[in-house]
Amino acid sequence: MIPVCRTEDLPEGGAVRIEIDATTPAIAVFRSEGALYALDDRCSHQDASLSEGWVEGCQVECPLHAALFDLRTGVPSCLPARRPVRTHEVTEADGMIHVRPAARENTVREDAYA
């Protein structure tokens, strides 16, 4: 598990971006409706940071073209995005938020949503 931030540093409706290394895509961690979610921090439609988007309920809106992604599954619910973004395990313990990056083998097939 990779430490993200202290619990109080991620308020309700907020997002934090973490970069792990040069080969792993950045991850966005969100808090919404009391739950934590983690997605790849890159819209599948165009190269926008989802951590800069707007969170409402269980969705995040891409700041470039308003594509909506389900925070629980990474699946887009409207155009222009058609492909899901990868989700990651996120936990909160002892005042810290941690994320476990998903293995690339577990990535949802992008062509399944084309």
Could you characterize what this model shows?
The chain is built from no helices and nine strands. The chain is an all-beta fold. The strands form two sheets. The protein has a six-stranded antiparallel β-sheet with strand order 1-9-8-4-3-2, with no helix packed on it. It has a three-stranded antiparallel β-sheet with strand order 5-6-7, with no helix packed on it. The mean pLDDT is 91.
Poorly predicted residue ranges: none
Strand order of the largest sheet: 1-9-8-4-3-2
Radius of gyration: 13 Å
What is the string of helix and strand elements? EEEEEEEEE
Q: Compute the number of strand runs.
A: 9
The number of helical segments is 0
Structural class: mainly beta
Average of per-residue pLDDT values: 91
Largest sheet: 6 strands, antiparallel
Terminal CA distance reads 32 Å
The quaternary state of the protein chains shown equals single chain
**Which outline best applies?**
globular
Specify the helix fraction band.
under 10%
Strand fraction band?
35-45%
